[in-house]
Amino acid sequence: MRALPYWRLSGYYFFHFAFIGAFSPYFALYLQSLNFSAWDIGLLMSQMQLMRVFGPNLWGWLADRHGHRMTIIRLAGVVALAGFSAFFWLDRLPGMLLAMALLAFFWSAALPLVEVLTFDHLREERNRYSRIRLWGSIGFIVTVLLVGALLDRVAPSGLLWACWIILLGMLACSLALPETTATPAAGEAPPIAAILRQPRVAALMAACFAMSAAHGAFYVFYSIHLAAHGYSKTAVGLLWSLGVLAEIGVFLVMARLARRFSLRIILLACFAAAALRFLLMGWGVASPALMIFVQLLHGLTFGAYHASAITAVQAWFPGRAQGRGQALYSSLSFGAGGLLGTLISGHTWDAWGAGWTFSLAALFGLLGFLLVWLWVREADEGRRAGQPDSVP
């Protein structure tokens, strides 16, 4: 039996999410140092979400139709690194917009295919997925803390070197990843449209869209919200780190939770936690104890939610449809859902205020809860995929 390439898979997740930890919090500050306007910064940063709407679907379709997953993953790493390298000499909007779009389009291609590859390596050991994925959370924490400390001591351009080295590490891991044969599915895989017409699949995709839309205000305005109520930058950073630590804790116990509770129960708990979390975030910010609790809920609203959703997608999109299934999950949730949540919160923040903006986010969480409650049933969670259960 072929050994699981645990550290090579974990290393890829580490570097992928380490890049997010370096890029997302700090690249806007680098753009500000180049005297870009707020609109230009928003336009450039939005490319990461916009390309996640289209990129993963195209790459997933190519992988499902023609195979060669590792070729696509490695090509994505090469072009993403080349696109980012252009930032070392670009300082005008048109060129930087093109480089950002190129980076985002190829960078977003790889992770859904790596998720499929990971599950194909795991085969009957799906309960080990969370322990591989937690290295992504570790990468995020390590990088967000180290790069923040670095930028206190060097010029903003030092961020470019940090991100470039991380992308190089991600490419190196992709070169080391071994291909594996796809997990065999019972019978011929149905067309993607037929899979999406299943009520449980459509409901899950819509619920995932709602969950990412709910997080839009959080990712853009949470730090601003805390600072406006007197929290120091150190406290803001510690709260962000606490959320990711909670996520890691959930990944570590996810296998035991999945054995004890059904997919439906876990997802319902995650969406209920999201509704509560964003209400407290909007109206309870004056209480540090509530903000600690709010960040601990990130373990449910991302950790348990993501592990459950991605495993359901893997089970419900059988055989050669798996690449497109993971791509749809990524593009509809983190792409379209995140983009909508960001745009809505940007519109309502000044007009409605923080409390009502986060209340709207809580409504998205409630919408996801209702979708799962009504259309995701326990009786057929793994039936069509030929699995005894659809969570690890």
In short:
The chain has 392 residues and is mostly helical. It contains 14 helices and no strands.
Structure description:
With 392 residues, this protein is mainly α. The chain is built from 14 helices and no strands. The chain has helices at 6-33, 38-66, 69-85, 93-122, 129-151, 158-176, 192-196, 199-228, 233-260, 263-283, 288-296, 298-316, 322-352, 354-375. Helix 8 (199-228) packs parallel to helix 13 and helix 8 (199-228) runs antiparallel to helix 14 (354-375).
Q: How much of the polypeptide forms β-strand, as a percent range?
A: under 5%
The Cα radius of gyration reads 20 Å
The low-pLDDT segments are 382-392
Molecular shape: globular
Outline the fold blueprint:
Elements: H1 6-33, H2 38-66, H3 69-85, H4 93-122, H5 129-151, H6 158-176, H7 192-196, H8 199-228, H9 233-260, H10 263-283, H11 288-296, H12 298-316, H13 322-352, H14 354-375
Helix pairs in contact: 1-2, 1-5, 1-6, 2-4, 2-13, 3-4, 3-6, 4-13, 5-9, 8-10, 8-12, 8-13, 8-14, 9-11, 9-12, 10-11, 10-12, 10-14, 12-13, 13-14
Q: Top keywords for this entry?
A:
mainly alpha; disordered C terminus; globular; single chain; 392 residues
